[in-house]
Amino acid sequence: MKRKRGSEQILGKDEIDEFKGSEIRSAILELSKISSLHQHEPASVCDSKNDVAADAAATTVASTTTTTSTSIAHFKTHDHHIPTKSFLHVCKFLLLQVLDKVGPTMAVLRQDVHQNIRRLEKLHDMDPSMYRNVDGILKKEAGEGTSRKTYSCTRALVWLTRSLDFAVSLLEKLCKETYGNLKKAVEESYEVTLKPWHQWISTAAYQVALRLVPGDAKTFINLLMAQDEDYDDLKEEILSLVSLLKPILNEVHCVLRSFKSDRLKSNSR
Question: CA 147, CA 126: separation in Å to the nearest integer?
Answer without folding.
Answer: 18
